[in-house]
Amino acid sequence: MGKRRRTALRVFGLLLVLAVAVLTLRTNLPDLGQTLDVLRSAHPWWLLLAAAAEMTSLRHFALQQRRLLAGFGVRMSVPRAIAVTFTRSAISFSLPAGSAVSAGFAFRQFRTAGATRRSAGAVAVLSGVLSGVALLLMYGAVVLIPRGGATGNTDTLVLVLAMLVIAGLVFLLDFLLSPRRPAPPPVLADDDPEHPSGRIARARASVSRTWDDLRRLPRRSWVLSLVHATVNWGLDFACLAATAAAFGIDVSLVRLATVYLTVQLVRQIPLSPGGIGVVEVALLAGLVSAGAAHGPAAAAMLVYRLLSCWIIIPLGLLTYATLRRGPKVPDAPPVQPPALATRR
């Protein structure tokens, strides 16, 4: 697909999202003064739970990639994996073509940790694949759960606390199942395979290599990586649910999950770095259509995006400084993740 066609599709997608938002909000846009009043009335304990859920979500995104690296015999400490996650997330959120630049940065960090070119590329690709599978599992769960009315804060509190407890148990399980000595890496067919010509042939070769790499990984590695990815998405949704509760938005968790998953679908369209601007409009329109008042909907959108996106950019700059102290490896071509749903 040519550059002009991609640009045209992005502009069309952006206009489509804005059109849907205008149709949803045309009768009553959120008033700035009302939104500020709602922000000042937020319940601090809910905001604290939302922040804890989002930070724990980021940790599990780091643990997912760390577990995949371990499957290829590469060890990376938890603090360093978290630093890589914050830095690559900041890159993805702040730069044009941020996803590609973020993938290239992660590739180089995996190489710094001792991964071969093939295994570093496999981790980057498999991470995206398993994140996409985890998101599909969430879609399936929402479809199967019967709809209901407003549920109140009790169900939201149970959800957030349950996700935090599950996250702790998964982290403990990952620690207990980690080998005390580096596991021998699975034997890959070629560390630098020759790429076939033709777009379809390259796509088939990429799918074939990804499947082969997944089969060669120890079952423990890809299963735990999928669990980490699922917890990552679940905690991010818990952050949104806690933020909504902080401003008194009383809609069913199923309807809120539908809004969340719709926004994630919109976010996969690379209209802007990190979906900035697009996600905010789509989330606001989704909350209002789910039954939230305009002021609380705008306040919840602002706080959720602050926790899940905006605040990560300066934090990523700080963690980047710690990563610069590590050993260097020669630059390698960035590895593009597959076109599947990715969290960062």
UniProtKB/TrEMBL annotation:
> Membrane-spanning residues where?
7-25, 45-62, 120-145, 157-177, 222-249, 269-290, 302-323
Q: Which InterPro entries match?
A: L-PG_synthase/AglD
Main localization, broad class: membrane
Compartment list: Cell membrane
Which controlled-vocabulary keywords does the entry list?
Cell membrane, Membrane, Transmembrane, Transmembrane helix
Q: Which domain of life is it from?
A: Bacteria
Provide an example Pfam family for this protein. Answer: LPG_synthase_TM
The way it spans or sits in the membrane comes to: Multi-pass membrane protein
NCBIfam families associated with the record: flippase-like domain
What is the name of the protein in this document?
Answer: YbhN family protein
Origin organism is Dactylosporangium vinaceum
Lineage, opening ranks? Bacteria, Bacillati, Actinomycetota, Actinomycetes, Micromonosporales
